[in-house]
Design a protein that fits this description.
Layout (H helix, E strand, L loop, with lengths): L6 E11 L2 E6 L6 H10 L3 E4 L2 E7 L2 E5 L7 E4 L3 E4 L6 E8 L12 E5 L2 E7 L6 H11 L4
Helix pairs in contact: 1-2
Length: about 140
């Protein structure tokens, strides 16, 4: 897919459950694929690894994999592995592994991608990240 005003390709991994996706961002080597693998082991499905195409459609941010990367994920030190594949999903959460959490109970944070505001977690140092993301996608956050 060629990026246009309503789409772009992000350096991110994405997994989903029930049509709801988390976009995992951060610098190279920050653990995006490792977190995605952890979430897959908890029952989520791969949308995209390393490069995620995002499109704005009817006010929603839709994540998908570039065609040549569908169903493939990198396991550092092991190689490229096939993974159960979800297909496109609506992004409900962005996790930034490049930034640490600054508070125990932070105020709700958001990020805007292609004009769509999405909840954001700074998760660079959180040890409970995978189970928290899993619950977050199932039920959202209680404020």
């Amino acid at each position: 897919m060629t990026p246009n005003a309503d789409s772009t390709i992000l350096h991110a991994s994405t997994v989903a459950v029930g049509g709801k996706a988390v976009l995992i961002t951060g610098p190279s080597g920050s653990g995006k694929s490792a977190l995605a693998l952890d979430l897959i082991s908890r029952g989520l499905l791969l949308v995209a690894d390393d490069r995620t195409t995002v499109n704005c459609h009817d006010g929603c941010l839709i994540a998908s994999a570039p065609t040549n990367l569908e169903g493939l994920i990198e396991a550092r030190g092991i190689g490229i592995l096939p993974s159960p594949y979800h297909g496109p999903a609506i992004v409900r959460l962005v996790v930034d592994l490049g930034r640490p959490a600054t508070q125990r109970l932070p105020d709700r944070q958001t990020i805007t991608i292609l004009g769509v505001r999405i909840d954001l977690i700074n998760g660079g140092d959180l040890t409970n990240l995978a189970p928290a993301i899993h619950l977050y996608l199932q039920a959202a956050r209680v404020d």
